From TrEMBL:
Species in which this protein is naturally found: Shewanella xiamenensis
Similarity comment: Belongs to the DNA photolyase family.
PROSITE patterns registered for this protein in UniProt: DNA_PHOTOLYASES_1_1, DNA_PHOTOLYASES_1_2, PHR_CRY_ALPHA_BETA
Gene that specifies this protein: phrB
Protein's name according to its UniProt entry: Deoxyribodipyrimidine photo-lyase
Ranges for domain Photolyase/cryptochrome alpha/beta: 10-144
Keyword ATP-binding applies: no
């Protein structure tokens, strides 16, 4: 008997994925409404753990720990609304359609509610569920404006950010932007749920991804621990909302001048919460509109710069849906298929470990390795250094970021890496090569950020902190890796020569 023929239709199922919140959750609200309208007896809720899929997607252990903590908080929140929650343990996405078919039959489920996800494997998984007859209803909430609703006059996705953002604001300005509240309880409070743990999380056998063999990158060893604690990041919807509100009340008006300085607490730091859906983009835009109601229409609004960053997030998600090959690691600009990347493994490892001899690059990488997060200006600096100074394929860096970021997000990460490498949609031109020394002088003028993450350089004067460690520098490109002076390595490349080399090698992008 198929699900739709069973006639019992007594229950609905809420399937939480990258939307781990109860507030402003369209899918969850729709599920609760459906239960009330259909006098159904119950709403059940699940989260499906898929460890081998996660390994294939290179999810960072710290992000998984953050997800696990939020799944537990979700279970508690749902219990207080009278909704029973179950953590389901499968292996990969391919197991889901069969599991859900059985689950729906067993529990007489008439509708399954979930939020849509833009990544290709997630879309294929949902399509397979629908083809298996699962009554899946998807809502679009990973963006404020769903992919496909911000198009140019020919009805296509924009390939340049500025007109996209203009159109995005035009469309958004016509809509009421009001977050949904937490739905009313559906029944009496349930007993306190037991702690839930993801099982079989082992990252030692992370398979090759995006055509890069793990043996080439040596990345396997870097994520051999089961889960890395995310405790330094406070969990919960309340915490995410507090961070957002604090930022909007106290910092957003200075964001334009502060956002590029990693030693200043000038950005919102909400990305870990947005990435797993503890916070929705609508909550962010609504909070901004409350303080600056003119922000959509007035270019001079003090909230405009931050709004633009939220629109970049939407731009990259829309691109991922319009160009599904991006999820598979393809260059947006196919001319980049001809770049002869050097892919020197030792230099890559020096970059990963923060041992390039360029203090700003190394401090940034250590921030990532120690906290699971990196300031945006530094993401641009280290990505440029890897792809242009070292001529290492951007996919190696993208993958390392994904394996270490608590805010890992395929669309933003892919977009940021391809932008930095010069092969993305509306990317930084290949000939714009960040000078790590002037970036350092400009954005960490007193060296406060560098000293925080490179305490071994505490006694260095400011001037020296911005320079690569190039005393006794050997001939070009032959600097010994990890040779140290005062416990700090010599520069692995010399800036001017690396710049000249990058201009020649990346010149193939000129033809695009
Ligand atoms: C190479 C590279 C890789 C990146 N990888 C990721 C990633 O995996 N996950 C991720 O969330 N962001 C990524 N970013 C974008 C950006 O660096 C982070 O979103 C930002 O640093 C998060 O800090 P915040 O929350 O304080 O941001 P804020 O400056 O306060 O901005 C608010 C929100 O807007 C979004 N946002 C801001 N800048 C961007 C941007 N350039 N592109 C897309 N969305 C943006 C984020 O959701 C962010 O939380 C990457 C950027 C680069 C250059």
């Amino acid at each position: 008997m198929s699900i739709n023929q069973c006639g019992l239709d007594k229950q609905a199922l809420m399937w939480f994925r990258q939307d781990l919140r109860l507030t402003d959750n369209q899918a969850f609200t729709a599920a609760c409404d459906w239960v009330r309208q259909h006098h159904a007896t119950k709403l059940k809720a699940i989260y499906i753990a898929t460890p081998s899929q996660w390994r294939r997607h290179d999810i960072a252990p710290i992000q998984l720990d953050f997800i696990q903590r939020h799944v537990n908080l979700l279970a508690q929140g749902l219990a207080s609304l009278g909704v029973e929650f179950e953590l389901i343990q499968l292996d990969s996405f391919k197991d889901i359609p069969a599991f859900l078919t059985g689950y729906c039959e067993e529990h007489s489920i008439g509708r399954v509610f979930a939020g849509r996800e833009p990544e290709i494997n997630e879309q294929k998984r949902d399509q397979a569920c629908i083809e298996a007859g699962i009554p899946l209803v998807l809502s679009d909430e990973h963006c404020l404006l769903p992919p496909g609703t911000v198009l140019n006059l020919s009805g296509d996705m924009y390939r340049v950010f500025t007109p996209f953002s203009r159109k995005w604001r035009e469309v958004a300005a016509k809509q009421p932007i009001v977050p949904l509240g937490v739905p009313a309880p559906l029944g009496p409070i349930l007993s306190e749920p037991k702690p839930l743990f993801f099982k079989n999380i082992g990252f030692a056998d992370s398979p090759a991804n995006k055509g890069i063999a793990p043996s080439e990158t040596g990345l396997n060893q870097t994520i051999s621990t089961p889960l890395i604690s995310s405790e330094q990041w406070a969990a919960g919807e309340g915490q995410a909302k507090r961070l957002l509100n604090q930022f909007i009340q106290q910092k957003v008006q200075d964001y334009k001048q502060d956002r590029d300085f990693p030693a200043i607490d000038g950005t919102s730091v909400i990305s870990p919460y947005l990435a797993i859906g503890v916070l929705s983009p609508r909550q962010c835009v609504a909070a901004l509109l409350q303080r600056f109601p003119e922000v959509m229409v007035d270019d001079t609004s003090p909230g405009r710069t931050w709004l633009n960053e939220l629109i970049w997030r939407e731009f990259y998600r829309h691109l991922l849906v319009a160009f599904p090959d991006l999820s598979k690691g393809h260059n947006f600009n196919r001319q980049a298929d001809h770049v002869p990347w050097r892919n020197n493994r030792d230099e890559f490892l020096a970059w990963c470990e923060g041992k390039t001899g360029y203090p700003i690059v190394d401090a940034a990488m250590r921030q990532l390795n120690q906290t699971g997060w990196m300031h945006n200006r530094l993401r641009m600096v280290v990505a440029s250094f890897l792809t242009k100074h070292l001529l290492i394929d951007w996919r190696w860096g993208e993958r390392y970021f994904r394996q270490h970021l608590i805010d890992g997000d395929l669309a933003a990460n892919n977009g940021g890496w391809q932008w930095s490498a010069g092969c993305g949609c509306d990317a930084q031109p290949y000939f714009r090569i960040f000078n790590p020394m002037s970036q350092s002088e400009k954005f960490d003028p007193d060296g406060r950020f560098i000293r925080k993450y490179l305490p071994e350089l505490a006694s260095w004067g400011v001037k020296r902190l911005h320079q690569p460690n190039q005393q006794k520098m050997p001939s070009l490109f032959e600097a010994p890796l990890f040779a140290s002076q005062a416990d700090y390595p010599y520069a692995i490349v010399e800036h001017n020569a690396a710049r000249a080399r990058a201009l020649t090698v990346l010149g193939v992008l000129k033809k695009a």
